[in-house]
Amino acid sequence: MSLYDYQKSKEIAKEETSFETLIMTAAWKADISDFRKLRFVFPKIIKEMEETYFSGSSSNQTTGSFKQG
Q1: Phi and psi of 56, rounded to 5°?
Q2: What confidence score (pLDDT) does residue 49 get?
Q3: Handedness of CA 29, 31, 37, 39 (dihedral sign)
Q4: What is the pLDDT of residues 8-57, one digit of tens each?
Q5: How far is Cα 29 from Cα 57, in angstroms, rounded to an integer?
Q6: Domain map of the chain by residue range?
Q7: Phi/psi of residue 2, each to 5°?
Q8: pTM of the full predicted structure?
Q9: Between 64 and 44, where is the model more confident?
Q10: Residues 46/27, Cβ–Cβ less than 8 Å
C-alpha cells in the first residue's frame, strides 16, 4: 500500500458510500484471484452484482473491468 492509496481511502471513507458499493467497486478492479476472494468473503454482494451484470442488459456491460471467475 502506498501513502497515496492510504490517503485516497480516507477521502473515499468521508463520502456517503455504502459498504456494498465499496465491495462492488473492489470487485470491478480485482484480478481473478482477488475477485474469487471477494466472492468467498462477500457471497451475497458478489452474487447480486453478477446477477445484475449478467442479466442480459447491454447497458450493464458497457463499462468497467468486471471479471467472471
Answers
A1: 100, -5
A2: 93
A3: positive
A4: 999 999 999 999 999 999 999 999 999 999 999 999 999 999 999 888 65
A5: 21
A6: 19-69
A7: -95, 165
A8: 0.70
A9: 44
A10: yes
The residue behind cell 456494498 is 20
- CA–CA distance from 14 to each of 9, 24, 36, 39, 50 (Å)? 9, 18, 28, 25, 27
Alpha helices for the chain (secondary structure H):
3-14, 19-29, 32-41, 43-53
Q: What angle do CA 50, 51, 52 make, to 5 degrees?
A: 90
Query: What's the pLDDT at 65?
Result: 52
> How far is 56 from 2, CA to CA, in rounded Å?
38
